[in-house]
Amino acid sequence: MKVKIVLLVFCVTFCMTQPCNKLLTWQEFVDIIEDIPKDDRYDFIYENYLKGYRIVYEDHIPLEILDEKCKLSVAICIVITKNLYKNANSFKYLLETRQEICFPHPIGCINPNDPGLRP
Question: Which segment of the chain is annotated as a signal peptide (predicted)?
């Protein structure tokens, strides 16, 4: 929980200093994800991507009127769509059906159905 609070403070501070069209680079996204415990990564991406997706593709809310948490969600949605999963709907489908999602190294694949327990 402490990591999430520190991360949120970093993200809010970062988003406040960036122009709306350059909210997050791929490396900054990777750095954010690496700071989140592995067990929480899928849920973090899930919650933020879907929130950002709704804002960008469904509600069409201008970035200028969003709070900082919403701007972070939009930034995550945009950086994933721009750099990895070119089709926003296909990535949204993967998240909604709780399927494995894969990112380049160092993040790798995240499977929400794998409890991570090994014999």
Answer: 1-17
DSSP 104: S
Q: What is the mean pLDDT of residues 56-61?
A: 90
Q: Is 48 buried (19+), middle (13-18) or exposed (0-12) by CB count in 10 A?
A: buried
Encoded tokens for 31: 């750095």
**CA 88/CA 80 separation, integer angstroms:** 8
The model's pTM is 0.71
Q: Report the sign of the C-alpha dihedral through residues 119, 107, 11, 112, in that order.
A: negative
Q: For the segment 61-83, what is each residue's pLDDT rounded down to a tens digit? A: 898 899 999 999 999 999 998 88
State the pLDDT at residue 83.
84
